[in-house]
Design a protein that fits this description.
The chain has helices at 3-17, 26-29, 32-47, 58-71, 73-105, 107-120, 129-136, 140-164, 168-176, 181-218, 225-234, 238-270. The protein has 12 helices and no strands. The protein is 80% helix and 0% strand. The chain starts with a helix and ends with a helix. With 273 residues, the chain is an all-alpha fold. Mean pLDDT is 84; it is low at 1-8 and 14-20.
Length: 273
């Protein structure tokens, strides 16, 4: 047998034993648009076809980013914003879980409170700012109250809907097996409602982060990423404004990715994946 034929046969046997894994290129497709946008941005800046004061170069934004990191101003701003976000998220989520569970489990409570809550959730979040600023001032307390409201509504809605849409067949099985109310709640209702509850918590995390920037921008200035944007706008430093926007987007992306990873782990734990 000739050498080429032998090599072909060996290659075929190797391919049969170790099939090639397809390369997943889809995960990189999301980077195409940002890469094109940054390249176009750099080209327009280099050609100087736009007022350089309005559209600063990527190099200047990178220099500002390095200065913010080295001086520690970025970490101080992030620490202040994330502390507000975490406090408002926890208060709003805890309150939302309790209220949503009461609405879902207690029909009389739902008939009394449900219509008022349906009206409450129709009010735009930013419409609360004048009232909050009068009641709680313009400091951190007012901002945390604002963030708590942002987190409250999605948790209440999804928790209530998740509980009320538990399949009747599951409740019937629990009744046939003689489950107590506590066993039905903990072993049937809550596991079945868990995906909807997690969706509400996930939305609350994202909404409270978005509300953090809104609160820092609309209420009195203080430490935070929102203040970084205000400082850049007031001093006409577009590099600082663009840097702040990148940080806001990056933190939001990290929160979204972390929540998705936690959701997948939770799904495996509950046997849904």
């Amino acid at each position: 047998m000739s050498a080429p034929a032998s090599l072909s046969r060996d290659a075929a046997e190797l391919a049969a034993v170790q099939p090639l894994r397809p390369v997943d290129r889809s995960r990189w497709r999301g980077l195409v648009l940002p890469a094109v946008a940054i390249a176009l941005w750099a080209l327009l800046s280099w050609l100087d076809v736009v007022n350089s004061a309005l559209l600063v170069s990527p190099q200047k934004v990178l220099a500002t980013a390095a200065d913010q990191v080295v001086s520690g101003r970025l970490w101080r701003a992030l620490r202040a914003s994330l502390a507000r976000e975490a406090t408002g998220f926890l208060i709003g989520t805890a309150s939302g879980l309790v209220l949503g569970a009461l609405l879902g489990l207690w029909p009389l409570f739902n008939r009394i409170v449900g219509p008022s809550f349906s009206t409450f959730k129709q009010i735009s979040l930013f419409a609360w700012i004048p009232l909050i600023s009068v009641w709680f001032g313009l400091g951190d307390v007012a901002k945390v109250v604002f963030l708590s409201l942002a987190a409250l509504v999605p948790v209440v809605v999804n928790t209530c809907d998740g509980i009320r849409t538990v399949p009747p067949a599951l409740l019937e099985v629990a009744r046939v097996y003689g489950f107590t109310r506590w066993q039905t709640l903990t072993q049937v209702v809550l596991p079945a409602a868990l995906p909807a509850i997690f969706t509400g918590v996930y939305l609350a995390l994202i909404y409270s982060w978005l509300a953090t920037i809104g609160a820092e921008y609309l209420l009195v200035a203080g430490k935070g990423i929102g203040n970084t944007l205000i400082e850049g706008s007031e001093h006409f430093q577009m590099d600082l404004v663009i840097f702040g926007m990148f940080v806001i987007g990056l933190v939001g992306w990290l929160m979204n990715a972390s929540a998705r990873a936690l959701e997948r782990r939770l799904a495996r734990w509950t046997g849904r994946a």
